[in-house]
Model the fold of this input.
Amino acid sequence: MGSRAGDHLLNVNGLGISLDRRESGASINFISHAHTDHIASARSGNILASDETSLLLGAYKIKPKKLEERKDWIRLLDAGHMLGSKQLFASDYDSGIDYVYTGDFQMQKSAIAKQIQIRKADVAIIDSTYPRPEFRFDDREEVEAAMDIWIKQKLKRGIVLFGSYPMGKSQELISIMNGFGITPVVTPRIAEISAMHNSLGARLDFLSRSMDIERTEETLAENFVGIVEAGKLREAAAAISAAHSKRVYTASATGFAKLYRMGTDVQFPLSDHADFWQSVDYLNAVSPSFVLTYGGAQEAFAANLAKVGFKAMPFSEFRQDSLKTIEAQWHSARRL
Ligand SMILES: [Zn+2]
Done:
């Protein structure tokens, strides 16, 4: 594809900024949040990230070397996705262009993350996790109400086991369960990351116990709700069912439940991302002249955003110069 060093950097005030990726030639490595698909640059130095993200990187045994001085033309805005998740807002002095980059974001207030902050910008660079208009998530309140009813019904008959991503989603599940009056039992890995969240001000009430040993007075005498890593759900459910001689009801809670069968007894479409229409709401509020789509599905997302009236093109096709050249690039990209 003939890509040169620096092609995938955002250049502002003469400095190349990498956006959740490891790129050669980057002067600043921005990490929007502590999910593994966003932290490739975490060992590179000159890291720009929130204090929460820096601490949570400790879960992967990474102690990031942060940028020595914070630039006064950069601001980090809350992204609403998980604890410490941020957008990058950067103002270029010469051109007067304000850029905002989202990483993963969410418009609805989640149980753990701060509500998203929105600022107007000339160019919005937006994550493409849910690029198609068919993706529409339900209100979180509705999903949580359904979870409450289902969990309490199943607890009368057996054990409830959620398979979940250990960083972010598991803590949100703990918080939601706590709201139902339930203290869930979690694996040591999820407990470790949850304790980090508590050290950052979250108030998560959970137990860390072996779930797959025979019950005794000291262990888990009653039916309980467990949370394990998603990849270990099937195996854990079988072991727990055998140890307790009880039925284990399995559950997943992810936005992908709208797209795929998760193989669990029930799947709740609880997402920490904006769906397509929430992305449109976000862009309407940011009110950019141009939208650059970012990530795996950037072509599809740009095409679909163009259909609803945005000047949108994939970030990978974008050659940064001035707004006038972005206009020209957008017209040529659109003809494709
Ligand atoms: Zn994420």
